[in-house]
């Protein structure tokens, strides 16, 4: 039972990070129909940038993160939208899909050239210890990760539902055509979601890289997991992507321990297949209606 | 139109469409002030496209749109809203997961003034008690008729002088259609100019003041609703001859 609870907490903590990444992914899809197949690389790159900042300025991981964040917002938020997404949007979803796959390859190979092919250690935000309370063991690093992720998720949810700009973003996500008719500045709302996504992946990098280590190929796994989380939970719902992220984190951790760690990456795929078979719109997704 | 009619909106030789497809082939129409005018025409005549052009959502290649003395041809939807035009498109145009209240609030985006928006929401609630009653419920749970009320209420939040409404009756029961038409007439009596597209041309024309007939992206006929309704050619073409079950475009 003690092991179970520790695994569960670890699963929820990793799941929370997947959720952050998946939410960004879902937001991009909702507001601009961008399926960002480079989302995993978007998490891999800031991990390396944080490491470089740490060694270049000889600073801790948090200050390095704070320097990395604005760079990411500009390059992976603003420039990503301006240079890659905006020119391709008029041509439909598919060219954009290919373009983001291309971007993923470029980032991956670029990272290999710049930072090498070896996995580099990445410091935890807090030192890793096991604490016990009433018989439940949990790692401090896991709890911190979970805490940070939950604060961000709640903050994001409050922003999206309680503020007018947030609701305008939600409205743009739910129905950009109607949003435009009402005078909502759809382009600006789309830009905001790109900036949010860049912020979310940077936080994701800060939290996930300690366990994944900084490696050029991290994006493959992470991108796939975010993609699966979004599909499992429901692509067209922020809430869906959140829950999908948590579910995948938990299933991965429990499955790896109780069944076989060799199949760690297989469990989310089984979940994905089940969801696609029985509830293709996702556990919390909305059926999309298309009028002709 | 009769030369004595007070015209609020005039399009001159509009040519436009989507990408390379041209749908409006030199459309010139005139809409009388503070009246209810219904646009009819066969499928693909460009009715909805004309509305999109009027609201700044279409590539207009040439021609002009004049609203009450202002050239609004090149304006975007935001600017049209600020010039007193509102648009209720065909189909479902609410945000189903947001509350009725928050849906209504979006009607005021172009005011850029939240307190004023909230004051006006109270006025809309007076006109639409059902929306007030259900202000906290998810808009997606409203009935089809209530959703249309919400859309019209949302458009009225801006107190527009010119309302474009595309097939308000679609998917509504006959009683709700009647209620929606009654509401539009009430708005007209308050001085709002309404331009409406309707598939059910006969019923729509019977409550309208004027009628406009489009055919292949051009004006085919206009006049008082009675004149249009009683025109022999129109009767044969649109009112009895062909039954349109599909939506426009």
Distance separating the two termini of chain A? 54 Å
Query: Percent range for helical residues of chain B?
Result: 25-40%
Q: Characterize the main sheet of chain A.
A: 2 strands, antiparallel
Amount of helix of chain A? over 70%
Number of helices of chain B: 10
**Count of alpha/pi helices of chain A:** 11
Low-confidence stretches of chain A: none
**CATH class categorisation of chain A:** Mainly Alpha
Shape assignment of chain B: globular
Q: What pattern of helices and strands is seen along the backbone of chain A?
A: HHHHEEHHHHHHH
Global mean pLDDT of chain A: 90
Explain what this protein looks like in three dimensions.
By secondary structure, chain A is an all-alpha fold. Chain A has one domain: Orthogonal Bundle (ABC transporter involved in vitamin B12 uptake, BtuC). Chain A contains eleven helices and two strands; from the N terminus they run ααααββααααααα. Chain A has a two-stranded antiparallel sheet with strand order 1-2. The model of chain A has no long low-confidence stretch (mean pLDDT 90). Chain B is of the alpha/beta class. Chain B has a domain at 7-92 and 160-241: P-loop containing nucleotide triphosphate hydrolases (Rossmann fold). Chain B is 37% helix and 26% strand. Chain B has ten helices and eleven strands. Chain B has a six-stranded mixed sheet with strand order 7-8-9-4-10-11, with helices on both faces. In chain B, strands 1, 2, 3, 5 and 6 form a five-stranded antiparallel sheet that branches. Mean pLDDT of chain B is 88; it is low at 241-249. Chains A and B meet through helix 6 and helix 7 of A and helix 2 of B.
Brief write-up:
The complex is a heterodimer of chains A (292) and B (249). Chain A is mainly alpha-helical.
Describe the secondary-structure layout.
The complex is a heterodimer of chains A (292) and B (249).
Chain A: H1 2-32, H2 39-57, H3 61-88, H4 93-115, E1 130-133, E2 136-139, H5 140-162, H6 164-174, H7 176-181, H8 186-212, H9 218-233, H10 238-258, H11 266-278
Antiparallel strand pairs in A: 1-2
Helix pairs in contact in A: 1-5, 1-6, 1-8, 1-9, 1-10, 2-3, 2-4, 2-8, 2-9, 3-8, 5-6, 6-8, 9-10, 9-11, 10-11
Chain B: E1 7-18, E2 21-27, E3 30-32, E4 36-40, H1 47-54, E5 59-67, E6 70-71, H2 77-82, E7 85-88, H3 100-105, H4 114-127, H5 129-133, H6 144-156, E8 162-166, H7 174-189, E9 193-197, H8 201-207, E10 210-215, E11 218-224, H9 225-230, H10 232-241
Parallel strand pairs in B: 4-9, 4-10, 7-8, 8-9
Antiparallel strand pairs in B: 1-2, 1-3, 1-5, 5-6, 10-11
